[in-house]
Design brief:
GO molecular function, one term: dTDP-4-dehydrorhamnose reductase activity
Shape: globular
Catalytic activity: dTDP-beta-L-rhamnose + NADP(+) = dTDP-4-dehydro-beta-L-rhamnose + NADPH + H(+)
Enzyme class: oxidoreductase
Low-confidence stretches: none
Largest sheet: 7 strands, parallel
Function: Catalyzes the reduction of dTDP-6-deoxy-L-lyxo-4-hexulose to yield dTDP-L-rhamnose.
CATH architecture: 3-Layer(aba) Sandwich
Strand content: 15-25%
Radius of gyration: 18 Å
Strand order of the largest sheet: 3-2-1-4-5-6-11
Keywords: NADP, Oxidoreductase
Bound molecules: NADPH dihydro-nicotinamide-adenine-dinucleotide phosphate, dtdp-4-keto-L-rhamnose
């Protein structure tokens, strides 16, 4: 199969490049950044051309607008990338009867129940990022293309910008920090997400259209996440729990967005690693990359 990866320079995109090394399929890695085959996913004709040129059967969309705070004052660009462009990719796959593998977020949920969110639950995003990601899901569905939408949460890796790297820097440079303990979810190592996407491709389960939830196993608050990042990084910092109101942000985030992964595990037969096991792996990679 010929597989097009968009947003290859992002966290998930980098991890897809690593997984692709063990595949016999042909991968075409694209981004708007230098060093990649150029593909701007806001341009439908450019997508069509790339699909035709490379006889693409599957697109893995790793491109998105992921700055949650900034999205509040940048609706047009967030919507263009997370909604319109997702629809473009779906349209291009519909035209060649291919499959779009797309990634969405726990932030489509309001997060006001303290039980794990299932795929068929009512959505009610609290901010622009979540709203545009939800609109993207709907735009994909509206094209009628074969699609696998994986909602994930709290993604981190050795690449790009993420909570693990932010906390490593902050706990190394501050004596004390406050981190919210009233937002509960599950971190996801981007390497594990790339592994599940690769598993779906390699086991040819691309016709199982639908929405699926994926994160690592377990549950924690951002405060707990910060504590263990600090400890595993060998830093000493007095991290104290605080309420969301105490940490200034232009956007409300869900209080409880733990994802129920039963559907994905049963459908695709994938064993999900526990969150601290994957965190240890990532911290070792970060130490090695220094
Ligand atoms: N990060 C997280 O915590 C979570 C992410 N997700 C979802 O997972 C997916 C992957 O996220 P992540 O790897 O963190 O994303 P990143 O922000 O790390 O990467 C996104 C990539 O898309 C590129 N990009 C931006 N605009 C375009 C464009 N017009 N055309 C093509 N590429 C473009 C970016 O380039 P540049 O950097 O130059 O803008 C970047 O390389 C996204 O769908 C995201 O919504 C879901 C839950 C949690
Ligand atoms: C840096 C910092 C953050 N926080 C809080 C802010 C926020 O509520 C929480 C996490 O901070 P972040 O900025 O990493 O959060 P955020 O960018 O909202 O992370 C989200 O990104 C998008 C793309 C997703 O899809 C979500 O799944 C989720 O990963 O921790 C503190 O309480 N203290 C701190 O010192």
């Amino acid at each position: 199969m010929n597989i097009l990866v968009t947003g290859a320079n992002g966290q998930l995109g980098h991890e897809m490049q690593i997984c692709a090394k063990n595949s016999n399929h042909k991968f075409v890695f694209t981004d708007v950044a230098e060093g990649y085959e150029k593909l701007d996913i806001t341009n439908l004709d450019a997508i069509r051309e790339k699909v035709k040129e490379n006889d693409i059967q599957v697109i893995v969309n790793c491109a998105a607008y992921t700055n949650v705070d900034k999205a509040e004052s940048d609706f047009d660009l967030a919507n263009l990338l997370n909604n319109t462009a997702a629809g473009n990719l779906a349209q291009a796959m519909k035209e060649v009867e291919g499959t779009l593998i797309h990634v969405s977020t726990d932030y489509v949920f309001q997060g006001d129940k303290n039980i794990p969110c299932k795929e068929d639950w009512e959505t009610n995003p609290l901010g622009v990022y979540g709203k545009t990601k939800l609109a993207g899901e709907k735009s994909i569905e509206a094209t009628g293309c074969k699609h696998i939408i994986i909602r994930t949460a709290w993604l981190y890796s050795q690449w790009g910008k993420n909570f693990v790297k932010t906390m490593q820097n902050l706990t190394a440079s501050h004596d004390s920090l406050k981190v919210v303990f009233d937002q509960v979810g599950t971190p996801t190592y981007a390497g594990d997400l790339a592994a599940v996407i690769s598993h779906i491709i390699e086991t040819n389960q691309l016709d199982k259209t639908g929405i699926y939830h994926f994160s690592n196993e377990g549950v924690c608050s951002w405060f707990d996440f910060a504590k263990i990042i600090c400890e595993l990084s060998g830093n000493t910092c007095d991290i104290q729990p605080c309420y969301s109101e105490e940490f200034p942000s232009p956007v409300k985030r869900p209080h409880f967005s733990v994802l129920d992964k039963s559907k994905l595990k049963q459908t695709f037969g994938f064993k999900v690693p526990y969150w601290t096991d994957s965190l240890k792996k990532c911290i070792a990679e970060l130490a090695e990359a220094k």
